[in-house]
Amino acid sequence: MIEHPILSIKNLSHRYSSSWAIRDIDLEINRTGILGLLGSNGAGKSTTMNIMCGVLNQTEGSVLINGIDIREQPELAKRQIGFLPQNPPLYLDLTVDEYLIYTAELRKMEYRQIKPALEEAKERCGIAHFSNRLIKNLSGGYRQRVGIAQAIIHKPKLVVMDEPTNGLDPNQITEVRTLIKEIAVEHAVIFSSHVLSEVQMLCKEIKMIADGRIVFSDTMDAFNNYVEPHSVLMQMENPPVTAELLKIAGVDKVDFVTERQARVYFTGDREITERLIAASVHNGWRLSEISLDKTALDEIFKQLSTKTMQS
Ligand SMILES: Nc1ncnc2c1ncn2[C@@H]1O[C@H](COP(=O)(O)OP(=O)(O)OP(=O)(O)O)[C@@H](O)[C@H]1O
């Protein structure tokens, strides 16, 4: 028997009226766990997710869910997908139970399977005690849990979540992230975010999308290595001239941020900090602070985002 990938997207492109929102997206998921789709607002995350869940018809390319073409056999393919869109379609005047039973029926679940599936989904999402509560009387975090419950009630292979923590308060964000991690033990989860730290925290694999194209695709470890700081910030009471700093092995470039603070770009290992401290002591630069430059991470993120626009 042929084993199909859970999700296989090839050369996916979409055009709204005249302009392309996404171009040539390739993506494959073969196992459970979380894949992060990272991109800033307007990068093309929602467009990609709406197409992969059969909500939007693509202009070009193909989406196969477990080997089934979502455009050719949408009903069959959608049974394997759970989707939490950016604005979950919750019916505020229904109770949690009424709503979840309705979504199970939409998925054409067998009648006798619905009751146990309902209980299991509520249990997993921590909403069993709200079974008879109207959705409009739930907090944002609990509404999001109901949204997640409708995405998993039919036990799909693939769960797609479009910015699931957007608009939640910090406690709710932590709870929803924990829930996503739990769900990913049994399901393949693809999750979008514009928050780099969130993707770093949750995902083993990352696809970064910018201006409708994938600009980075690898494991989270590879991404973290890639975006390791390449500069340090040095605060000195008696700073040297740039040329003195450039003499130190590994230093590529120096920018003075203020008269006494230099950003020192380097290649190679992080032992550069030790060499800089030693040089400072030796030459009397009176170093008061030295740190790996965190803003460098954002800079690299920006560079990756704009890479395709320039090429
Ligand atoms: N219905 C639409 N009609 C025309 N253009 C659209 C439509 N929906 C999205 N776009 C455009 O397509 C591009 C990609 O948008 P998309 O919503 O997929 O991005 P996103 O990464 O999900 O961003 P956000 O987080 O802001 O939703 C943007 O330039 C957006 O303006």
From TrEMBL:
Cytoplasm among keywords: no
Family indicated by similarity: Belongs to the ABC transporter superfamily.
Q: Does the keyword ATP-binding apply?
A: yes
Which InterPro entries does the annotation name?
Answer: AAA+_ATPase (IPR003593), ABC_transporter-like_ATP-bd (IPR003439), ABC_transporter_ATP-binding (IPR050763), P-loop_NTPase (IPR027417)
Q: What is this protein called?
A: ABC-2 type transport system ATP-binding protein
Ranges where the ABC transporter domain occurs: 7-236
Instruction: Supply the PROSITE patterns for this chain.
Output: ABC_TRANSPORTER_2 (PS50893)
The uppermost taxa in this organism's lineage are: Bacteria, Pseudomonadati, Bacteroidota, Sphingobacteriia, Sphingobacteriales
UniProt keywords (A-Z) are:
ATP-binding, Nodulation, Nucleotide-binding, Transport
Which PANTHER family does the entry mention? ABC TRANSPORTER ATP-BINDING PROTEIN, ABC TRANSPORTER ATP-BINDING PROTEIN NATA
Q: Name one Pfam family in it.
A: ABC_tran
A GO molecular function annotation here is: ATP hydrolysis activity
